[in-house]
Amino acid sequence: MSLPEAFPAELLAPPDPAALPLPRATPGVRHLRGVVYAVREGSRPLEMDLWLPAQAPGPVPVIVFVHGGAWRTGLRDDLGPRFRHWQPGPFARLVRAGFAVASPDYRLSGEVTHPGQLRDLRAAVAWLRTRSAELALDADRTVLWGESAGGHLAALLALTADAVPARGCVTWYAPTDLTHLAEDQPPGGYDPTDPGTFEALLIGGALTDLPDRARDASPVSHVTSGAPPFLVLHGTHDVIVPYAQGGRLVSALRGAGAHAELVPVQGGDHLWVGIPDDEVERCFTASLDFAVRCVH
After folding, report:
1. The pTM of the whole model exceeds 0.90
2. Which of 263-282 are b and which e, b meaning 16 or more Cβ less than 10 Å from the residue's Cβ?
3. Buried b (16+ CB within 10 A) or exposed e, 205-224
4. Using an 8 Å Cβ cutoff, are 87 and 23 in contact?
5. What is the pLDDT of residues 158-194, one digit of tens each?
6. First-to-final CA distance of the chain
């Protein structure tokens, strides 16, 4: 993942906490913030936020949302700048559609290298299963959903978590094959020998110096015929994570006999820059519809 000069860099930064809207109640939604799901020695406690139906006739399926931020930053409840103005917010909309939503923290690349992030997310999903009865969750009907680096981690989790299987996985503009990032970028657009790229910081060294670790951190390397269904949305004009990265994951899944849908978002750049609001809404709705199909 690299940052071309033409991309609006301010959109990749997390929002200014001084300007963030304060949490607000949404009718019909019970919101639990800052629930600790793991305590790592020498590290901060890891937390998640939960959006739950205020009243439900029985256990509800779960969407686990994994935030982006180049594995380096990000807010656990942030789908990106195109969604920050939504009222009700996207997670409240998912609850109104019949889901519970969990958005966990994970340790960033400044705290731990791969596979530390994956271990954290496995712990988060395992915690949800352990506490499912008191939270009225149907943990057997879990869908993973992530954007950018979070989509990468959601895909890794879906493809490697045998003990906590997912019913489906949604990825938005996610890197899926670190070993071919340079090939998928324009000539000179990405230097796999650079130890300072976001991917290098994730795995602990330049991609060319640590090829086995780069391969292990690539979702395409873990595809099997038993993979859950995938929905992959990727902008055709993404200058940060090339559109070809989405295609690589879908091709690998289909080649293994798993179900995978690729939705090219025409004219879309990273973070859904470059497309109108109604198209952003369609990306969200298509993802929600897929999640509904996965759990019914």
Report:
1. yes
2. bebeebbbbbbbbeeebbee
3. ebbeebeebbbbbbbbbbbe
4. no
5. 999 765 679 999 999 999 999 999 999 999 899 999 9
6. 35
